[in-house]
């Protein structure tokens, strides 16, 4: 199923469930890794309904958000029309984001930073997505991303990063079945090993500069103590060489 359709079908559910509050541990750390944003040009890949895009803009960045889901992009534009913060949203496949949008006349990337918040596992073509990140970044630019930890095995009612009847090393798209994994039951996800992510980044000149495994929020962990024993989130910062 094309991932445009996956999210078009759940756009209302997704926007209602993930508000503009960015005080969850993974989002806080993601924004921290970017450093000061005032005056910087930032691309938000798989921006969805614009939650992180708006957080970036409120911190002074000039933001472009791109997403494959027309339904989510429309929600992002609706928020921009209601409360303008200067974000430009583009309905496009991030793996084919055009050079005219992403590079200057000399072919060099025009963005100081690229962000992808929990979107890489939604993109079927990881190689294409990372190539776009590398192409759009200026030399020395930063790529920061957050993902469900590839090594997270799940817990009672919480699906992990790979199917419960499969192996960690078995990569591919799958749909969660955990009763508490409300989004992934509907849209699925691509499981990839940690080494696949890191090696793909390096292949495209994105060198891992810092990584973190923030613990989940206390209220989440309190009701999922078995799952909270394991690393749940992974946040990484890479530098474009």
UniProtKB/TrEMBL annotation:
Keywords: Methyltransferase, Transferase. Coiled coil: none annotated. Gene3D superfamilies: Vaccinia Virus protein VP39. Residues 43-145 form the Methyltransferase type domain. One of its GO terms (molecular function) is S-adenosylmethionine-dependent methyltransferase activity. It comes from the Bacteria. GO terms for biological process: methylation. It holds the Pfam family Methyltransf_11. The keyword Transferase applies. This is Methyltransferase domain-containing protein. It comes from Nonomuraea deserti.
